[in-house]
Every structure is written in C-alpha cells, then in structure tokens.
Fold:
Amino acid sequence: MKFYFFLFSVCFISLMVFYSCSAEEEESVAPVVQTPQPEPEPLEYTLTVSATEGGTVSTEGGTYEEGTEVTITASANEGYRFTGWEGNNSTNESLTITLNSNQTYQALFELIPIYTLTVTTSEGGTVSTEGGEYEEGTEVTITATPDEGYEFVGWTGAIESAELEVQLLVSEAKEVNAVFLKILSGTSESIQLCELENYHIERGVGLGYPRYDYSLKSVGNLKITLIFVDFDDEPASRNINDVYNYFNPVSSDFFSKSSYDKLNIEFEVIDKWYRMSKISSDYLSPPDGSSHHSYLSEALSLADKDYDFSTTDHFVVVTNPDAKHFVNGPAFQGNSYWNFQADGKIFYSSTNSGYDLNYWGGLWLNHEVLHNMGLPDLYNYGGDPTWHGFVGEFSIMGLISGFAPDLFAYEKWMLGWLDEAEIFCFENGNVVTDIIPLESYSEGSKMIILPISDMESLIIENRRALNLDQNIPDEGVLVYLVDTSILTGKGTIEIIPKDKSDEQKKNALLKKGDVLIYDNYQIEVLFNTEDFYRIEITKN
Ligand SMILES: [Zn+2]
Structure:
C-alpha cells in the first residue's frame, strides 16, 4: 500500500512540472494585452475653522476638492480685537487658503484694555473734557480755554504742549493737567520812589541814597595795584606770584560775573616784598582807624619809590600771609581828611590782608574792596546770638565762603550793576510780574522793591544755581528786608522769615504756591519755569 501511494506522488509531481514548463512557453510567445483603467475619484480635504472667545469666523470650513481656494474672515465682537490666526502667520483678518491637505485654523481674539484718562486744570481756565474710560488706541481731543485775566501756559503730565487743542492717544492710564496763569499786570513806578534814605553812614558803608561820597568807583575799568609787605621778624618765604595766585583769576572773575561785566578789574603787581619798619607785633591788629591809616600809608610810601601811582585807581596791601599777628584783613574807609596820597593821586580807601587770607582765599579781596565801594557787612558783629542769622550763606558780604556768594540784587543796584529796566518798583494795589534769575546775564526784571518806609523796603529776587551761585543747594524766590536805619554788622539786610537760628537760609527760598505775608504785603509765587518766577503782590 505504501508503495502505490509513493508512485502516485511521483506521477503527480511530474505532471505539475510538465504543466509548468508548458505555461512558460505559452506566455513568452503571446502578444501584450493593455487593459483600460477607470477614471480615479477626485481627492478631497477637510478645512476646519474656529474662533476663540470674542469673535466669529465667516465659515467653519468643510470638505473641499483638492486645489479649491477658500477665503475665511475673522470678525471681532465689540470690546474685542483680532490678534491673528493659529495655524497661519498672517495677521490679516481675511485669509485665502488653497486646499491641498487637511487644514485647521483658529481666529484669535482678545479683550481690548480699558484705561482711565484724567484731565485736570489749574485755577484760571477750563478743559473740554474731564476724561473717562477709553479703549486702548482711542484718540481723544482735549481743548483748554483760559478765563479772563489768565493765559494758558501749557499741558503737563502725559502731554507736554503749549497748544490749546491737543490729541491724546490712550495707550495706558494717563493724567494731563492744563496750566493757566494770571496775565502780567501793573507797571513799575519810577525807580526814585524806591530809593531809601541814608539814615546814617557808619564806617563809610550803607545801603541808602545818596551813597557815601568817598566810595570807590564800581563801574567800568578799575586798576588795582597790589603792594606786598613783610617784617624783620616775619620775612616772606613765599614768592609773590604764589601769593598773587590767591587773587588771580578768582577776584577779577567774581567782579566780572557779579556785575554782568559792568566792572572790569585789572590787577597790577609790584613784584617785590617791601620790609616794614617795625616788627609785626608792633602793629596793632586788628587796627583802629588811626593805626590802620598809618600801616597802609607806610606800605604806600615804600612802594612809591618804585611805582607810579598816578595811573592806578586803587591799592591793596598784601601782608605776608604767614605773619600770624595780623589775624584779619580789614577795609579802611577814608574821607577828605583821612586818605592816602601818592604821585598826585588821592586814594580815599584801601585795605590790607591778614593771616585769614589763607582761609578765605581770593574772595577776601572782593569782600574788602566791596566795603571800599560802600557795601556794609551783613553778618552779625559779635555773633550774638548767631554770626549768620541775618542772611545765612547769601552774599559775599554775609559769608565769604557761603554757598551763594553773589551779591543781593539790592547791593548790585547800589553799585550800578542793575539798570532801571531790571528793577520793578511797586507802589500800591495788585501786580503780577516776573523775575529772572539774579545770576543770569539775560535781560529782564531781576528785583522787585516793595517800599515800607523811607528807610525800609522789602526786596524780592530769584536765586538759582548759576554762575557765582552754582553751589547753592536749592533754588527759589528770596525775600528780604533792607533797613537803612540799621548799621553795618547789625542786620541792615535780613532775610524773611526772620530766624536768627537758621544760619544757612536755604529753607527761606520760596517755591511755586508759597505765600509770604509781611507788613501790608502779600507775596505769592504763582509759577516758575527755568527762566522766570511769576509773582503776585498785593498790598492791603
Ligand atoms: Zn567786612
């Protein structure tokens, strides 16, 4: 049985092989037949469009044939804005898409921020809107209208402009303020009305009219000859040029700047130490009038042998600054009897330095020569209760090393350094006027005088960190009383408010909005810019 099965298998396999060979033969000879294919179905893609909260889209999409162009548009609801597409970089609200794949887009919206605009106004005018809540990006027009008697100064805050009408783009919370200001009113009286009487000239200095007859001239070119002296017991060890450097250029610069170039100092140095006849301690220091006169006369006659004094205007004796016996350098104010003569020239005043030159430096000379020109001391002689309680660190006549050494406007007026056009002389009523910084070379009003009596005036000036006052720690309006019945070193000028414990007076500077009442006057600082302070004065 097994045998037969095997035989059958062989036969069957043989048959298959045969058949197979026979099929290959048949194909290799038959012609190729092309069978026609059916048209393919067109491809389709899906477009999906959606919107975030705050807006809608023109279509939600669907199924489109490949290559179809579809335009989708995003629209924001009120209070919202379109910001772009998720799925596309375009920020255009309208997007045209060509379908060649499945695509998904989402229109993005956000809430538009709301900001508060606040519009305020100073006294003296109105504004077209007080502001409110605005969507970001809103442009708001605001108009300022001044009341009668006021002018519009400008907008401050979010807008800096002097235009009456401005457009403001709301991009954040903003505040703007319309500033109005009283219009200038009133005119200055003739300056003579504001000249104080000279109650009493002591030591040849004072702040009234007429000025001291023998005062040194303070306007124009002034040649000052410097005479250097030493002693057998205190021979000079410094060379003259080193000592001269105390004054050069500090002293002449001070006069140029304080006088607005109305006074021009030229120093002439006699290049020699003159030996005085006595030892240093045999001279009285501080001197009395007579010993002072003889000290200065001796120095002048020593130098006269070498120098022609006929062409100079003034002489100053520089004592060996290492001679400690001469504690300070006072000014000598002479007259028709007490004076100095050389080469036919009469000098009615002079001064000599002392050991304190090393402390004060060159401005010592300015202080003493300003005495020779007739200005009094403004610090408190004897220091009771304080040395600088009258004018603090203002004016070189108050404190040589003070932070504001420029002279008071009133002192400058005495010296002929302020013109009538720079002075506002008030008499009665109400005025609104501007004052420019005292230290400025600009033209404009630099001093307001408010007369109180024949010997008393209130003075208003504007002090700023400029020129000689560059180290002043604060700026503002200074008000002070000039009283010609008070003598040198006793408070002939006193800053208001009076406070003898305040030896600096920087806190006395008035600012915008400050009101000071003194005697019958009310002084209000209305406003200031870099260039001026506007002041309103009322006399009741
Ligand atoms: Zn003095």
About this structure: Residues 367, 371, 377 surround zinc ion (CB under 6 Å). The longest strand covers residues 263-275.
